[in-house]
Write a structure and sequence with these properties.
- The chain is of the alpha/beta class.
- It has eleven helices and five strands; from the N terminus they run αβαβααβαααβαααβα.
- A five-stranded parallel sheet has the order 2-3-1-4-5, with helices on both faces.
- Helix 2 crosses helix 11.
- The longest helix is centred in the N-terminal third of the chain and has 25 residues.
- The chain binds adenosine monophosphate and magnesium ion.
- Adenosine monophosphate binds next to helix 5.
Amino acid sequence: MTFDIDHFRVKPGDKLDLAEFDTRATPFWDSKDKSGALVRLAQLNERLESLQELLWAQGSERILVVIQAMDAGGKDGTIRHVFEGVNPSGVRVASFKRPSSRELAHDYLWRAHKQVPADGELTIFNRSHYEDVLVVRVEKLVREKRWRKRYDHIVNFEQMLVDEGTTIVKLFLHISKDEQRERLQARLDEPHKQWKFEPGDLGPRKKWDEYQEAFADALGRTSTKSAPWYIIPSDRKWYRNIAVSEILIQTMEGLEMQYPEAPEGVADIVIPA
Ligand code: AMP
Ligand code: MG
């Protein structure tokens, strides 16, 4: 079955109701075929590895992958599984935590802009400038008058990056409230996961609906032709991993990258004994 990534794409200006999405859905895949998905993921890992090598060799494209989700939505796991086998030299993860006082002393895009990919690089934003219209909006960290304007800034900022040669892919890992409870519970139950449990994560959980609304607004207002959002049903981790891999691979294939020409006469060179 061909995996049509347009299916996951948010249309510009869409008014979304995230509760309408089935977070356990497995479009273009048999929901019972988990073992097949693991085999498929290994193939996709290899394909992504070659595409990243090509990206680096060609050295003129820049790729920015933005990942957002509720707590325990699988951002770290996605990065680990989707990029397995990819050469770490050409890939960088930028994680956006609570802003430092120095970051807060600047505009909210300052810290994001400093981390964008250069030629030949693929950069993953684990959280991003979108926090400034998500947690900031819901927790009222700045006034509405201020965050309302940010959707337009973000669209313009991303358009500038695209115009200057960056390809942007934005992924929302969509989990259900029940799935989040199970994953947070697992963090309490499994000793090697306890470090990940932050009592603070229970705060946003209490405001689930407000966060979902903030996400819906952000996705609808900032999904553009140049910098689309994709909504990934993410309750099943194995499915999420193949869906994300397909989206990245098909996007990179669309760039039609080529290895650079070998220098003149390379084929005739004989390495001296
Ligand atoms: P984690 O990704 O689990 O390490 O948590 C990072 C925390 O930083 C989350 O609670 C985010 O909501 C928070 N965070 C990230 N960016 C911002 C921001 N711009 N303003 C406030 N909190 C933020
Ligand atoms: Mg956390």
